[in-house]
Hints:
Helix content is 82%, strand content 0%.
Amino acid sequence: MSKTISYLLLFSNVLLLVAGQILFKWGLQKAGGLQWARIALSPSIWSGLTLYGLATLLWFAVLTRLPLSVAYPMQSTAYVLGLLAAWFIFDESLSATKLVGCAVILVGVYLIAK
Length: 114
């Protein structure tokens, strides 16, 4: 399989992980925190778990196509996307320090991918 497809699978994995985290956050907010009975019945939580399951299946495909030493560090782009999603969706703070941290992560991913 081509390298392009391999990286598309990896990027899809990252997107599913971030979407799952967003759904977890949403579900926990709606449940009022760690209210286990509410969490167990939360469609958002179950949807997030489903996305995590799909992300894991994609990850298996990625691991058969890319070296772990490349794929795993590249998954750290999820941190950047998660931070941006938290800012955009949940109105969480986005400071200059966080942006510099994102830049450091992206530079690291670039260097590993070379």
